[in-house]
From TrEMBL:
Matches recorded under NCBIfam families: hydantase
Cellular compartment(s): Endoplasmic reticulum
Transmembrane annotation, as ranges: 25-46
Name assigned to this protein: allantoate deiminase
């Protein structure tokens, strides 16, 4: 369970360090830009801004990266929409394509025994701990082209720029890009097969998980000529001593960056999550004959409970008196959703006998999540008593929050800021810091090493849909930020 200190670590005062790192970046951009240093002084004319931008590899970081996203977006198992599941034929073709791009960027490539694609450059010191950069190559069904692919392609493009400027061999530590084979978990309902194997948290029993048609992970691995034994699985795991950290660029999948008008943000953590199933039982009866005062209606009770949940998560401070243990209650990231409801017998002229609904509750602060759950359970039982219905709450799933490494986040923050300074004229003092409500490979990788993430703005906050969209210039900004981050490791 997270402690308050763990949370507080993230909100370290960044101003001083950001400024000093930032001045390093400005120097870097002045050097790498064709434009003269005078462009950084005072009001920049549009033409000057254009010239300056042109020195920043738009052909690799924007045009080619976008073309590759579109090309990868056509590699699908389905007809007419994008679908690439774990080790499917399309995933294998996508893997080959990514491998060829990695090699072109000067990386040595290989495929591990669970289908992850690796591309690595050793840099100056082959025995130094490696920086890993990754995201996933699988997709959901009827997916967009940016989720997962963006993080892989931006990383390869940034390294390609380093190759073109002759700096690829001058990195102070090895840098490895990993395209994970399974994050969405569409086929086997088990997310993170690829990154969990690398971080060593994938249980051997995962080999026996089967899909809907009874084919196991082991079968699929064997079909694809992987060994699929206990030993081969264990060999995928990285030694924590050999790794310095993990970073991931990913679309935000939410509307915050768009509402701020900024292309990039730094992720402070990935929310912890609890899933509940609530069963409410009353007395089933005739809609016409049972007087209102004599009903035990589980539907009306559920409606009250759902609205109660909403108020609790909107204004937890009205319900929860904290014990003074932490410096205030961190509920800014608290989100609660009832997404599924079923009733029995579900007829218009029958007072239902039973209603089930789910609750999905997420927060960056594990203690806040626990106290909201505790309060929610209290309120549910009280309401059910008052309404004379019986309520059962089952806890179906729990995942702890992952807090991104403060040092890595600080570096990513400066890198994002330096990229945005070029792309967006009105940016003020810092890159925004966001919480991730969705899970990512970084969650699994946090069991191996420190992690950091950058979010990229996407249109309308939409993802897991063909309507998913990232502006070409935002792809560029993400590439520039990664480049700036890599330049810190020269
Ligand atoms: C290379 O990295 C290793 C491991 O971090 C370190 O012990 C060694 O001093 C480094 N060598 C140089 C030349 O920096
Ligand atoms: C509610 O869930 C229980 C099991 O948890 C199940 O037996 C029952 O059929 C469900 N009822 C409805 C209305 O879906
Ligand atoms: Zn994703």
């Amino acid at each position: 369970m997270a402690s308050c200190t763990r949370k507080d670590n993230v909100s370290v005062n960044v101003n001083l360090t950001t400024t000093s790192l930032l001045s390093r970046f400005l120097v870097l951009f002045i050097v790498s830009s064709i434009a003269s240093a005078s462009h950084f002084t005072g009001g920049i004319a549009l033409d000057d801004a254009k010239t300056r931008k042109n020195g920043l590899f738009p052909e690799i970081l924007r045009d080619e990266a976008v073309a590759r996203l579109k090309e990868l977006g056509k590699v699908t198992d389905a007809e007419g929409y994008l679908e690439r599941t774990f080790l499917s034929p399309a995933s294998a073709r996508a893997g080959d394509l990514i491998r060829s791009w990695m090699e072109e960027a000067g990386l040595r490539t290989w495929v591990d025994q669970i289908g992850n694609i690796h591309g690595r450059v050793e840099g100056m010191n082959a025995s130094a701990e490696a920086l890993l950069i990754g995201s996933h190559l699988d997709t959901v069904i009827d997916a967009g082209i940016y989720d997962g692919a963006l993080g892989i392609i931006c990383a390869v493009s940034a390294l390609k720029v380093l190759k073109s400027t002759g700096k690829l061999g001058k990195l102070s530590r090895p840098v490895e890009v990993i395209a994970f084979s399974d994050e969405e978990g569409v086929r086997f309902q088990s997310t993170f097969l690829g990154s969990a194997a690398i971080s060593g948290i994938l249980p051997i029993t995962a080999l026996q998980i089967s899909d809907r048609s009874g084919v196991t992970v082991q079968n699929v691995l064997k079909e694809n000529s992987f060994e699929a034994t206990k030993e081969s699985l264990l060999q995928i795991k990285y030694d924590p001593q050999s790794v310095w950290g993990y970073i991931e660029v990913h679309i935000e999948q939410g509307p915050v960056l768009e509402s701020l008008g900024l292309p990039l943000g730094v992720v402070k953590g990935i929310a912890g999550q609890t899933r509940l199933k609530v069963t409410v039982r009353g007395s089933q009866g005739h809609a016409g004959t049972v007087p209102m005062s004599m009903r035990q209606d589980p539907m009306a009770a559920s409606a009250e409970l759902i609205v109660l949940l909403e108020s609790l998560c909107k204004h937890p401070e009205n319900f929860i008196s904290y014990d003074g243990h932490c410096n205030g209650f961190t509920a800014e990231s608290l989100v609660c959703t009832v997404g599924e409801i079923s009733t029995w017998p579900s007829a218009s002229n029958v007072i239902p006998g039973e209603v089930n609904f789910t609750v999905d509750l997420r927060a960056i602060d594990d203690m806040a999540r626990e106290s909201v759950l505790f309060e929610l359970a209290n309120q549910i039982y009280q309401t059910c008593d008052r309404r004379s219905v019986s309520c059962v709450i089952e806890r179906k799933h729990d995942a702890e929050a992952v807090i991104c490494d403060p040092g890595l986040s600080l570096q990513l923050k400066s890198a994002a800021y330096s990229a945005m300074k070029i792309m967006v004229s009105e940016i003020q003092d810092e890159a925004p810091v966001l919480m991730s409500g969705a899970g990512h490979d970084a969650m699994a990788m946090s069991h191996l090493t420190k992690v950091g993430m950058l979010f990229v703005r996407c249109r309308g906050g939409i993802s897991h849909s063909p309507a998913e969209h990232v502006l070409d210039d935002d792809v560029w900004a993400a590439g520039l930020a990664l480049l700036a981050f890599l330049e810190m490791h020269l």
